[in-house]
Amino acid sequence: MTKETQTEEKELPSTAEAPKKRGRPKKETAASETTEKIESTEKKEKTETTEEPKLSPEDKKAKLAKLLKKAKELEGAVEEDKKVDLKKKVKSEEEEKTDALVPIEDYLKASVHLGTRVITPDMRSYVYRRRADGLAVFNTALLDDKIREGAQFLAQYAPEDIIVICKREAGWKAVKKFAEMLGIRVFTKKYPSGILTNTNLENFTEASLIFICDPWLDKNALMDAVRTKTPVLSVCDTNNYTQGINKIIPGNNKSAKSLGMLFFLLTKLYIDYRKLPLTAPTVQEFIDDWDNLVPPK
Length: 297
Fold this sequence. Notes:
alpha/beta
């Protein structure tokens, strides 16, 4: 064997030796390093944002003084809002309406102007503002106009062609009085579904106008009216949607006082518009203890 051959054999790796570990490809290594850098940076940023800078005692006192000052300012704003006369706040114009159906104090006494904390897109245009407690306040001047328009719409129909539905207990007294005085059919507590659509029912009836007190609670009557293409008049609060309703009377439909005021005015206007030989009702017939109610300040 020549010397050259021996040298070559020495340089060849032994088959018994374990293969050397292969390193990661350069691209993978670079990507891994980049990811590690990003994660490291993110952790650093989180640490920097979560750790509050240490304040000296003087800085802490100054910061506390600012917070106390801001709290007093907010408290003063709320107190001032409470002291504001609602009579001036709820009107939309500088001067109060001179042709209102009732004095503005009566709307306030009956809480007709108070909505809910929820305002749907359908009812936003009827809202004037929000109170400090979050309750919506109706534009009383607009509300007055809409009650008049609602009464005119109602007066297009004879009493025997109208059905009134009110599932909410707060409205039962006012609705029954309204129906009794005008000779209009009324359903309280539960509306018998299908009476407008199912001709096989014994109590099947036809109507030219459906009058509901709440589109949500009285939704079965609303759906029947939509199916039969019967016009719908509805009292709508700030949290109501108005799809399927032909005429809206905006106002508080949760309160017995408010519904009492609305149905008192509608009864009075209906008698007037249709020139019925009936004596105009009094508000005391629709709202309990009316004379002792006081408008909010």
